[in-house]
Structure formats: C-alpha cells, structure tokens
Design brief:
Elements lengths: L6 H7 L8 E5 L5 H8 L7 E5 L20 E10 L9 H15 L5 E3 L3 E4 L2 E13 L5 E11 L3 H8 L13 H22 L5 H6 L7 E6 L2 E11 L5 E5 L2 E5 L5 E4 L3
Parallel strand pairs: 1-2
Antiparallel strand pairs: 2-3, 3-7, 4-5, 5-6, 6-7, 8-9, 8-12, 9-10, 10-11
Helix pairs in contact: 1-5, 3-5
Length: 263
C-alpha cells in the first residue's frame, strides 16, 4: 500500500507564496468539495483538502465524478475572495490556466477546452468544479471551493465509466507531492491576481492553450445542437467566441457542451 502523503512533506516542497495555505490530506472521503463547503465560513485561511480516494464526487451539473482508487489526483482548495459572487465570473477558466500551465511545466502537453476541462491528446485529463459560499458577515466576500480531479492512471476504465475519451498523465503518479506543490504554487500566485484583475488577466494565456482554436465545433445543450461555427477563443469575461455564418457570437458558460463537428 502506498504511504499517504504528509502535510509536512508537501509544505516543504511549496514556494513561500503557498505557505499560507492550510494543508489537509486524508485517505478517503465522500467529496472534498462538500467537506470544504460545509466548513468554508469557519475557515481562517485558504485550505487544501487532498484525498487519495473520493467516493461521492460530482462534476458539472451534478454529474457523477468517477475516481477509482489510485486513478486521480483529487483535491479541493477553499479560497476567500473579497469579491461579490458576480466578481468570480471567469474563475473556472482562470483555474484551468493555472492547472494547464503547472502540468506543462511538469512535461505534460496539457490544453484547455471551454469552459472547464483540461485535455491531453484530445482526451479529458482533468475536470474542474467550483462551488461558492457567500460570506455575509462583513464586506462583500465569497469563498470559492475549487474542486479538481487530474487523471493519473486507469484511463481505459475511466473512459468506459464516463462514456467519453479520458486520458491519464501517468508520469504524474510517480511524484504526486511534487505535482501538488507546483499546483499550489500556481494557485497562490494566480488567485490574488484574479481577485484584483479578474479573468481579463488570464484571457491571453487561456487562448494560447485553447485546444480547439480555429476548429469547427458544435455547441450542445442536452444533446441538441444550439450553434455551429469556428471556435475563436474566449473574451475577457470568459465567454466563448464563435464565428458562425451569421457572424461572431458569444456564448456564456452554462450547462452547454462543446464538441468537434464531424464533417
């Protein structure tokens, strides 16, 4: 059985900017997001909850988030923003930039898919789910619980469960604490920037990592095609830009999906 990573070891690998994050590592839990959401208003500092096994995870729109034992780096990061809820517009995309850049620094060819997936070789490598709690005790503030799952093994099994192409970056499994430290360093640098400047500070980086730029795509809602056109990146609010036969349109991130259009 692989030894559980320790907060002390993880802290020793983090840069100074990330030393203010409380580190919690557990063998198993239902949902790291649910755990931190329940405690968010009582937290005194940014808090990481990293689990080796998640048994009741969820994805966007309440979908099940499958994490068989040893298959993923699964964690949530609770972070307090001195912003009203609407000030977090575009945060999932900014988080995608942080994750993709961290993984690329580790040698993984990570790319981004709007609105909140990280890809490798056109398959899903990581998913992001952000849930929020508004702090009404004083000035406008919002706790964001940033849930992340990065596949590091068992891609074939995950693909069957998810019903779509899922990939794993098996190289991450060798040194998970190093990977987590790189991620935490990235969050510690990027999230204060987001608080000050919003997604506009990340739009250039997101577009540089866009997996589908210039490709013909469909936008689907419940399996029905809403729009087709050429993907043209995102704007400063995180809306998808789509060049259609009627001209350029913008699409806000609701419960819609982007797919390559089959010719």
């Amino acid at each position: 059985m692989t030894a559980l990573p320790t907060p002390q070891r993880l802290a020793s690998l983090c840069a100074p900017a990330a030393q203010g994050i409380a580190l919690e590592i557990v063998a198993e839990t239902g949902s790291t997001n649910a755990d931190l959401l329940a405690r968010a208003l009582h937290l005194q500092q940014p808090t990481l909850l990293w689990t080796q096994l998640q048994t009741a995870g969820k994805g966007r729109a309440g979908r099940a988030w499958h994490t068989p034992p040893g298959s993923a780096l699964t964690f949530s990061l609770a972070w307090k923003f001195n912003l009203p809820l609407q000030g977090l517009l575009g945060l999932p995309l900014a988080v995608g930039v942080v994750i993709a850049e961290a993984l690329r620094n580790y040698g993984v060819d990570a790319r981004l898919k709007w609105p909140n997936d990280v890809l490798k070789d056109e398959g899903k490598l990581a998913g992001i789910l952000i849930e929020t709690v508004v702090d009404k005790s004083g000035q406008a503030a919002t706790w964001a619980v940033i849930g992340v799952g990065i596949n590091i093994a068992q891609a074939a099994e995950l693909s069957v469960q998810a019903g779509r192409a899922v990939v794993a970056a098996t190289e991450l499994a060798r040194e998970p604490e190093h990977v987590m430290a790189i991620l935490l360093d990235g969050f510690a640098q990027a999230l204060p920037v987001f608080e000050q400047q919003g997604f506009a500070a990340f739009v250039e980086a997101w577009n540089a990592l866009d997996a589908y730029a210039g490709q013909t795509v469909n936008i689907l809602d419940q399996g029905q095609v809403l729009h087709s056109g050429l993907a043209a990146g995102v704007d400063a609010s995180g809306r998808l830009l789509l060049d259609t036969t009627q001209g350029r349109i913008t699409i806000a991130a609701g419960d819609v999906s982007l797919r390559i259009r089959e010719e």
